[in-house]
Amino acid sequence: MTIRIYPSRLPGEPLEVHQHGETTLQGWLSKNVREFHPDRTHPISIDVDGKNIPPSAWFDCHISPVSDVRIYPVPYGTGLEIAAWVAVSVAVAAAAYSVFMLSSLDAGSYTSSTGKSLDLNPAEANTAKLGDAIREVFGRTRLYPDYVVSPVTRFDATDPTIMRVSMLISIGMGKFAFTDGDIRVGDTPVSSLPGFSYTVYQPGASVSGDERSENWFSSTEVGGTSSGSGLDMAQTAPEADDIIADSMTVSGASVSFTGLDTDDDDDTDEDDEALPDSWVEGATVEIIAPTTFNVSSSSGYSVLASDFLSEINPYVGMPVTMTYGSIDYQLYIATWTPSQAAVPGTGGSAASVQASAAPSTYDFSTSTATFDVTWQGTTYSVSLIADYVTMSGLVAAITEALEGSGLAAQDISGTVRITEPFSPYAGGSITTTSLPASVFGTSPANTTGTASSGGSAAVTASVTLAYNSAAGAAFTGVPGGQQRLSVSHRGYEYRIVTVDGATATVQRLIGGAVDSTWPGFSARTMIDYSASGINDNDTWLGPFLACPENETCDMFEVNFSFPSGICGFNGKGKKQTRHVEWEIQYRVYSSGSSWTSLTGIYALKNINGLGFTERVTLTSAGLVEVRCRRRNEQGSNNARDNMYWQALRGRLKTRPSSYAGVTLMGVTVETGGKL
Fold first, then answer.
1. Residue spans of the chain under pLDDT 50
2. What total of structural domains would you count in the chain?
3. Crossing angle for the helix pair 94-101 and 80-88, nearest 10 degrees?
4. Same-domain check for residues 485 and 620
5. How many whole angstroms separate alpha carbon 408 and alpha carbon 376?
6. Whole-angstrom distance, CA of residue 506 vs CA of residue 495
7. Which of 103, 228, 274, 526 sits at a 20 to 30 Å CA gap from 158?
8. In DSSP terms, which residues pair with 170 in a beta bridge?
9. Between vectors from CA 295 to CA 294 and to CA 298, what angle results, nearest 5°?
């Protein structure tokens, strides 16, 4: 006789037939079932010559070539026992594989219930128990398909508000006839769903070219939350570590602070006059160093003029951030006019105001000094309100306030002089309000200049800005005259190279990479600066395995979801671009090897629910563990950017290329707008 394997105890033909000689039941199973262990709970029952043999008797139950041996599956309540047995005991015939493996695998983060139809948000199919018979249909009836492999959710790469669910489902044994009108999602015909697509595979047809047939393992540790949103990444987000100081001085690659303090309500402790702990070598910091611009209007643009623009190394089309009135604008340089040196004229003499004594102090942080300078019909206000430390710092502060006037402050043998620095001279007198004695002494001298003939005055560098691109809508609205604002590379990010007390040397970062062409800051001191680091707590979610411990994967995917969108808001409540930074790390499990990092940034101003799918292809298949974190502060400045780790899945290397005797359907359902 033979050993026959049946799909159930219902009447029908066996799936497999095996010849055998003199042996025992346990001996035959040990020889033919890979990694068979007698001490396991087995999802099969065995009848010999019509009598059921319990597993405890398999060891000494002898069978001969004339014995009638029949093996049936036992559908346990949860299917977990069968899954464990099948994981180590795949039968040799393709038909038996269909019985055990066409039942649904882990559905990841999706719930399911037997007898329910496909449904949106997310789409679902049945999860049949391992060992269940595959349906056979006679006549016309309504079917509720079963998963063949785990369904996969991915966010659209071009429109993150769209999520698609891909699945491979089993219709049943044999061939089926139906039309588009017969297919429904819930009670909705698929013809009414523009985001629905499907492909039918007849019995035995190859599915290897369909991505939906790939065998993905979805981690229940990531996607198994009751809300469905995933793991909240707020706990991994670092906090901003703002600099608290009286003033900031920049020059070249150097950034120095005067009057440093920590935010601990104690101005006498030893951590004063020291940079925060987050300001260390290699850290990324944000530095906003405003200056005085001379603003005018031309052709619908605000023209921003300052020779300090050279420090950003500008070019047409450069993405920049402009900060004015505590509002950040993400713009592009539409036009760029470099500064031009004066062409000297003939004759003439410079107008000037000469101090009668050296400055008695450079520190105006507690006792400020303000005066006006009028030249060629325009008045410029000079406010000394910081500790400028040295004579050069004081002279630079006065010159900065006179931006666009054609005048400059100079150090003349330890005294301050305001004058026309270059020919051609305009001629006339510099008039001022009462000058502070601490800077100019008690009797400063005013010298009237005489005009030169010929030559041309210096041209101050200037830019105009636009939205979205260099050719976009013109940016306007900054009032004319002298304005304090900042124009710099997008994001204001710098990397710390060295730290020495209250001074740091930095490199400019563009898109996370060091910009070797950056010329450095133009020298100046200011109190309206902004400087902050990231107090990185190095907190991670995970690690979690991307596939089961007895499997390997050749790639894995991570879903990040933002139920409230990604959007920032300015001081007036208007939407502005918000940046979210993230990091994924992975390594081979239990290898002790270092982590491999993948970082990225999402920049949007969208208040709708959305998400992103990140795919990592491994150089070699393995059992990998994955962890994730957020790299910038969450929710700052009233931003909507709550971030969740919604899914982790690994693609298993092994999967069937076809399924004998079974009709399959590859389905893709769009669930965007219902996240």
1. 76-121, 226, 673-675
2. 5
3. 150
4. no
5. 14
6. 5
7. 228
8. 146, 664
9. 135
